[in-house]
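Deviation from plan, reported transparently: phosphoenolpyruvate complex.
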Amino acid sequence: MDKSTKDKTIIDVKGIKIGLKPVVIAGPCSVESEEQILHTAKFVKSCGAHMLRGGAFKPRTSPYSFQGLGIKGLEFLKKASEETGLPVVSEILDIRDIQIMLRYVDVFQVGARNMQNFPLLKELGKIDKPVLLKRGFGCTIDELLNAAEYILNEGNPNVILCERGIRTFENSTRFTLDINAIPVLKEITHLPIIVDPSHAAGKRSIVPPLAKAGLAAGADGIIIEVHPNPDNALSDGPQSLTFEQFEELMRDLRKWNLI
Ligand code: PEP
Ligand code: MN
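Because the crystal trials were delayed, the predicted structure below was used instead.
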């Protein structure tokens, strides 16, 4: 396929058109309780977010860390979606969960650790919901595009690419956000590209500048971790924005015409 000449792909998620104008996807790293996700969903919606994120199945580095609420988490997420009207993005870890997740999520997230899980990608190529494909932290842009091809080849045209930071020698942040990837991908693919500053940063104070940089570089949106009480979050608390920080970021993004 000649990626450079094909028209830009616009992905419609319940009326939110990804690829047309920048979208903000926000929510906690993990769904922790019904109250936590509902409260967060209502807040991010009031600030102007377009979609809600929240993990029910968590790919934790340690098997002893919180692994997510599973199906119960998906139920809470759906309830929050119905109450706010925000479509939901949630991560799929296991090919065996595709059918059940189809009932609850609007966009399937493939995490960095599964970017090259080809059997999973092929199965997601057969569903009729969009896939948000995160770049593996040790993977090149070419490998990301080839991973996307596994989904596209099976007939699902709705793939959203996500730059979430790569591993470099720099250790003052969790990962290094590869801003280059945004304009590079814009030149060679028709697929929308969003930026995840939260996982790249690992630290909440530097999430807002990375979010702005990503949008200024031409990203089609951002996906941000927000938590009502980040210090007590069950995953990724240090990089989760407080409600106040998220509100301020949204104000800035509007002021700077980035969204
Ligand atoms: C997440 O979105 O919470 C997550 C685990 O992201 P990544 O796969 O980019 O590490
Ligand atoms: Mn996370």
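The longest helix spans residues 71-84. We consider this an acceptable substitute for the interim report.
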